[in-house]
Amino acid sequence: MEIRQLRVDEFESRVALSQFAFQYQVAPEQMEARRLAFRPEHDWGAFDEQGALMSALLLNPLEIWVQGKQFQMGGVAGVATWPEARRQGCVSKLLVHALETMRNNGQTVSMLHPFAFSFYRKYGYEMTLEYKQYKFEPHQLPSRTETPGQIKRMTEPNIELLNSIYTAYASRFNGPLVRTPEWWKDRVLTKTGRFAVYYSADNVPEGYVFYHVADKKLVINEWVSTNEVSRVALWTYISNHDSMVTEVIISVPIDDPLPFLLSDPRIKQEIVPYFMSRIVDAQGFVAQYPWAEGLQEEEVLLSLTDAHAPWNNGSYRLVWTAEGAGQLEALEDGVSTAEKDVISCDIQSLTAMLLGNRRPSFLLEVGRISGSVENVARLERHIPTKTTFLMDFF
C-alpha cells in the first residue's frame, strides 16, 4: 500500500470514490467547476500495488479561534473507501499519515465531522462541538421591542463588512473558523438566503442575520449579534415575519439563554453533537494556548498517552507563568503514574479540557483522568472557560 498526495490526473478517480461513498451525483455541467476547484495537494490517497485508488481523505489547511487566538488547524474531510478495500487498514494509515503531515505543517489541532463518533475516538478525536437547535411557532417568537439604530437588508453581500462582524462574534468562542474571503465566496454565500444587518445609533454594524424563507418556514443560516441591543433588534426583525411563516428554525451555541428570556419558553429544543477535535502536537499546542493568568508560577506533572501520535506520549512538567504562558517540558527520566502528584490522561481528555470546555474536575469525577484533587484543581484554574461553537461545515 502506498500513501501519497493525489495528482491532477486523478481527479476522476477521486470524484468517483466520493460520489459512491457519500451517495450523490455531480451534474455534468458542474464537473468542470469541480475540476478547477480540485486541489490535489490537499487530497491524500491509499493506493494498491497496481496504483488504483482504494481510500482517500481531504486535509484542509484552515484556522480556528481558540481562547481569542488564531490556531492553524487541519480539517479532515471526505474520508472514503471502496467497499472491496474496507477493513484493510486504509483509513487508519491515512489518518496516521495525516497527523504526521499536520504536525510538520505546524497545525497543532485537527477537526472533523464524523460519520460515527466511536470510530474517530479510536484515533484520538473527541467531541468538542455541539449546538442547540430551536424551532419556534410564530406566537412563540421573541417580543418585538423598539431599539436604537436600524436594520438594513443587503441587496449584495459585502464580505468585508460581514466578516468584521463575524470575527468580533466568532473570536468569543472556541472552535469557529477564521474565515477568508474565499471561504465566504465558496462556502457561505453559496447558501440560499439574504442578509439583514443591524447598525447602532452611531451607524456601527454590530450584528447580522442570514436567512431564507420557503414553504412557510424561515430558516436562519447564521445569527451573529455582538451585544444585547443587536440581539433584541435582530429578533424583532425576525419576529416581523410572523404572518408569513409557520415555523422558524435556528442553531445557536450550547449555552444560549434565549428560552429563559421568552414569555413562553416551551419551544422545541434539540442538542446536536456536531464536530470532533484532536490536539495534534501537545507541546506546540500548549505553548500557543492562552492560559489564565495566576498570582505566581505554578506547575503540575502530566503523564500523556496517544496511541496514534507517538510524539505526544510521555511524562511532562506543565508549567505556567503568572502572565498565563504555558510550557510542556518533557521529563527524560519520566514519572510514575502511581505518584499522587501526577495527572494521567490520554490525548482525547486533554483535547476535551482545552478545546471542548470539559472541566478537569468533571473528567476526574467520571474517571477520564486521574490525579489528586488538589492538582486537578490547579490545572482547572489555568484553563479559561469558553463556550464552543462552529457555524461552518467542511
From TrEMBL:
SUPFAM superfamilies registered for this protein in UniProt: Acyl-CoA N-acyltransferases (Nat), SCP-like
One MF annotation (Gene Ontology) recorded for this entry: aminoglycoside N-acetyltransferase activity
GO aspect biological process, one term: aminoglycoside antibiotic catabolic process
Residue span, N-acetyltransferase domain: 1-147
Protein name: Acetyltransferase
CDD domains in the record: NAT_SF (cd04301)
Source taxon at top rank: Bacteria
Organism: Cohnella abietis
Alphabetical UniProt keywords: Transferase
Record-linked Pfam families: Acetyltransf_17, Acetyltransf_9, SCP2_2
